[in-house]
Amino acid sequence: MSTFSIAIIGGGTAGWLVLNHIAHSVWSDKVSLTLIESPDIPSVGVGEGTVPSIRKSLQSFGISETDLIRRCDATFKQSIQFVNWLDANRHGRLNQYHHLFDAPNATWEPLIQHYLAEPELDFAHLVSAQASLCDELKGPKNITMAEYQGASSYAYHLNAAKFAQLLADNVKSKFKIEHVRANVVDASLFANGYIRSLHLDQGIGEQAFDFYVDCSGFESVLISKTLNVPLVDVSDTLLVNKAIVTQVPTSLDSEIPPYTKATAHQAGWIWDIALTERRGVGFVYSDNHLDNEQAAQKLDRYLQGKLADLPHRTIDMKVGFRQQFWKNNCVAMGLAQGFLEPIEATSILLTDMAGEYLAQRLPTATNALPMLQKRFNDTMSYAWERVVEFAKLHYLLSDREDSAFWKDNRAAHSIPDELASRLALWQQYPPSTQDFFSRYEVFNAENYLYVMYGMKFKSKPGSLSIEQRRHLVNIQEQLETYRQQLVKAMPSHRELINKIHQYGLQKQ
């Protein structure tokens, strides 16, 4: 009986996440799985934020949410709070907003029309009770709720290195996985351009497989160096290209914000992610608008003069995605697929999405490769293009005038055509589900609503009938009652995390 052999090149979050998807979908005696992990390359360690879809994947892998919280220093994430993305003098206290994970109230139209008629209102607080949970630093669930269930939607902040280890332990405990620690120093090709074999160090030598999954990060040892697939450069659209990253220790009794904080600055923005014992902080910026010394000074000011006392490093970000994600018998995943800035936690999101999609259409015979390759490339290209547009939305809607960076982000040539077309439509009509026809949009109407109206985008107000106005009053009364009940019922975020560490969550 012939076995179809698959090699995953690279560990880290991407490699082990994709391997979990593959193993749980296609494992059989007819498929062999090998993960080759470099003993020399540390995790990039930037992607510490996730989105709610990760819960579905982790649950399908059979990973306990209690173990996730305990082992990965994890905390709950219910939102991204954007601060200073608008002109502070013009907007004052309204110069911040939440991109919540709960969808707006089921009846969108009256609430949106109410906001458009009174734009001084805060959109997130108008349409969802979750904004108040964030304000009060509350958790999304209580200790009696089952794993992966909550009173509001949520994702996680986590230690990326520990998360990768949890994923590795999970898949190796359940499936027959060959785990090889070695570097890929070269690769051989067949005459038709397919990869024939890998050459590994550590005295291992040549190893041949039928299919290769490149999760080797920025190195992209197969998709880039062996198969010469170039990046589609989107640096003319997304202008930030560097990041200074550090970790700030915190006390075990400090409050934990249940959201990522994203604070805009002169030529970029700072993320601030709170785990149980530290904050992950990074300044993302454009070195075409700010030199490295100035960037370090801005991050130091944010950290109240503590940067010199903290280990920190600068990361160069080549922003773009592969012209092909799958070529011949090799598919790229994670950072080997491409990299966009960390806004909206798109890196783990795209890896999780692509890993699930690959697992559902994984080849188990060589003759299936060409057909699967085209479908995968078309789907992932569409997804990446939409993510670029959504990331760009945050910048081009800003009315900041204090630097060339913000002005350059509004230049017409930097705005993707599809995004420009959608914004023209949304000036007349608010976004609706009809505008998002593909399941691979990645970000949908509710995501655009939070960002657009959080940043005071102007859609033409419609009119509400008398019946709709009555309905609006009922919606608002019901939402306010629910808001008060929810805030009262949910524990503080730190209290919830402490109880999970002590008692664990209920199994489903």
UniProtKB/TrEMBL annotation:
Q: Which keywords, in A-to-Z order, does the entry hold?
A: FAD, Flavoprotein, Nucleotide-binding
> Which residues does the annotation say bind L-tryptophan?
E344
**Superkingdom, taxonomy of origin:** Bacteria
Against Pfam families, the record matches this protein to:
Trp_halogenase
Catalytic-site annotation from UniProt: K77
Q: Has the keyword Flavoprotein been applied to this entry? A: yes
Binding positions (FAD)? G11, G12, T13, A14, V184, L335, I348
Q: Name one GO molecular function term.
A: nucleotide binding
Q: Which residues take part in binding 7-chloro-L-tryptophan? A: K77
Q: What is this protein called?
A: Tryptophan halogenase
